[in-house]
Amino acid sequence: MDILIVDDEPFMQRSLSFVLKKEGFEVEVASNGEEAIQKARKFRPKIIFLDVMMPKMNGFEVCKTIKSDKELCNSYVIILTCKGQEVDKEKGLSQGANDFITKPYSPKEIVTKVRSVLCGP
Amino acid sequence: MDHKRKKIYLYLALIGLIPLIFFTGGPESPFRFLYYATLVLLISVFDSKAIFQASFTFCILYGLMPFVKTGKYPLYTVAINVFSFLLMAIASGYLADLLRKEGDSYEKATDIFHGLTNNLNLKIMNLQSEIDSISESYERLQKVDKKRIHFISGISHELRAPLSSIRSFSEILINYEDIDTVTKKEFLYIINSESERLTQLTDEILDAVRMESGKIQWHMDSVDLADVIRTAFRSMIPITKNKGLLMEIDVPGRIHPVRGDKNKLLQVMLNLISNAVKFTPQGRITIGAEEMSDQIKVFVSDTGEGIYPEEKGKIFEDFYRIGDDLLGRPKGSGLGLSIAKKIIDAHGGSISVDSQLGKGSTFSFTLPRSEVISSPDREAKAVMRFSGRQILVLEDYVPMRQFLRVTLETLGYRTMSAESVKQVLETAGIRKPGAILIGYPKSEEHVNELRILSRIKEIPIFLGIIINDEKSGPQLAVNGYISKPFDKYQILSTLGDVYKGRTGKILIISPDSEEARNLQVFIGTNIYETAIVADVHAMNMTRSLPDAIIIGTFHAEDMYGIIGYLRNNPVSRNIPVLLILNISLRDIKCIGLASSGYGSGVGKVFTELEGDIYSVANL
Hints:
The complex is a heterodimer of chains A (121) and B (619).
Chain A: E1 3-6, H1 10-22, E2 27-30, H2 33-43, E3 47-51, H3 59-68, E4 76-82, H4 87-94, E5 99-103, H5 107-119
Parallel strand pairs in A: 1-2, 1-3, 3-4, 4-5
Helix pairs in contact in A: 1-5, 2-3
Chain B: H1 3-23, H2 32-45, H3 49-70, H4 75-175, H5 181-213, E1 220-223, H6 225-243, E2 246-250, E3 258-261, H7 262-278, E4 284-291, E5 295-302, H8 336-346, E6 350-356, E7 360-368, E8 391-394, H9 398-410, E9 415-418, H10 421-430, E10 435-438, H11 444-457, E11 461-463, E12 466-469, E13 473-476, E14 480-483, H12 488-498, E15 504-509, H13 513-523, E16 528-533, E17 548-551, H14 556-568, E18 577-581, E19 588-590, H15 602-617
Parallel strand pairs in B: 2-4, 8-9, 8-10, 10-11, 11-19, 14-18, 15-16, 15-17, 17-18
Antiparallel strand pairs in B: 1-3, 4-5, 5-7, 6-7, 12-13
């Protein structure tokens, strides 16, 4: 499986998954941290998009769990942050995140990023 | 040792020495010098000519004593003896005087020094308190600034989510052409609803900002809260039904009306109910009202999730939402409750929450019951009541001070009063007033201290010359002010404002002929015809009426008397009156300037005060 999208906002899930599916990638979605880890174990995605602000378990915690799991740590984790919250980047990096995308983002930007990760530069 | 005892000891020593000297050999007595020394001390310590004279007489007698006693001394010896005694007495007197003077000037210097030190201490204390108040206002400003920054970052955060959706879906629609109609519709629907959310958000933000700066328009009227509750109930039924919640209404048959803005109170109700719906997964919502002794209590209670005790204080803050930011939050701007609180605060009421985790919450607010306002002035009723902040009335003319207070209180304001600037400073230090209203100001110096206070403590200063019109109650007394030092432009433009004619007769009433002549020069003689009288009774109103009257600097009592006379006299009632103020109007707002003029009811004019008190109260 290619991509797992983790976001509690249904509209964000919908737009991201629509675009990526349209571009021919296999996509799964999760609405919270626990579901994200479950699905990551089940589908072994190559890329995980992680929203920071989520109920129960936030994006950083999910990232930490994934990166400390031997089987999952090879997934490429992209954290979705908000503009103006640069502190999040440092926090994300320390938890092992691979990349960041700042909201509001354009779907094109996402597609380009996914292509470069999956197909190599 | 006290002064009196010292004196007694010295006198005893002196008296004791006299027989001692007498019996121990007269001129050759070894106690002679001790005697002089005591004398010097006595005279120098106590400025007494009597002592000096007494010892002088004693010296002469004593000088003669040996001669009288034995008769064996030749005359020249006696003469030398007397002479030496005299010389010693004079010398010791002179010495004593010198010593005393020295002591006096030392004392004077000490006095001056003490005075200076006290003065300096006072100044240091003043300075210290000034520093304190400056740092206090600096801290407050910092807090305000922090709040602003928090508010702005809150806004940008809230706007981002709907903007993100709109951007993503519109880009998808632009970039991909082969989307089926159903999906296209779905995306357009999302864009539409997200832009609606954006609109609602901006409305709320605007509301909050307006309320923060006190620029909101209030439409105060008598409001039946039962009516508001029923309206809110009706409009929320679809939403509660949709979520499968039960909603009940519990309002007593008749409740007292309150003074308020009906739409704003409805907004509060709708907000509280929609919050209850949001946090109640299942169960019941009860809304209602309760009559209390002098206020009405309105409540919205639910059987929802409840609130953590530590959150109770914060939920009324801007952008605060239940639940940690990182752990997700419900939709909404986070401004609803803070706006509700501002609305209720502005009505002189209070809002609070009572909650038990897992069992539900009850939000309630109280509003003061409206009392019947006895004033016949209809405009007065439009003035709302502000709790907490008071208006400080400064006027040293007692009847006027009383009158101003009564007028303000009839209009629903709370007042304090002061008769001097010093008292204002003291009062403001203990309890910060919402505004200061000055009657007739005395002098520039007198007002300057108020300006400083106003700037440091952010208390607006108003000036209002108000009199009691026998016919129509409290009225603005004059049509405009001319401030000192005179400024030709200000005088002419003020005159132009109140008197529309291009030429005309201006009457100057002033007890100070120099002031009157000065003013005459400023007004100029070629446009206006001017006449000067010293007292209002000197003007002959039956013969020819002036087109405008300027009143010079009088004592407060006389000034009010003159204006009262002019305004209550049908002949002069409608002549525009300008008043010369002994001060410049820097930092001072005049309520009711030329345009409102005489005859505009005081109620309307005082609404100007309101905006400022409100914004001060909300800093």
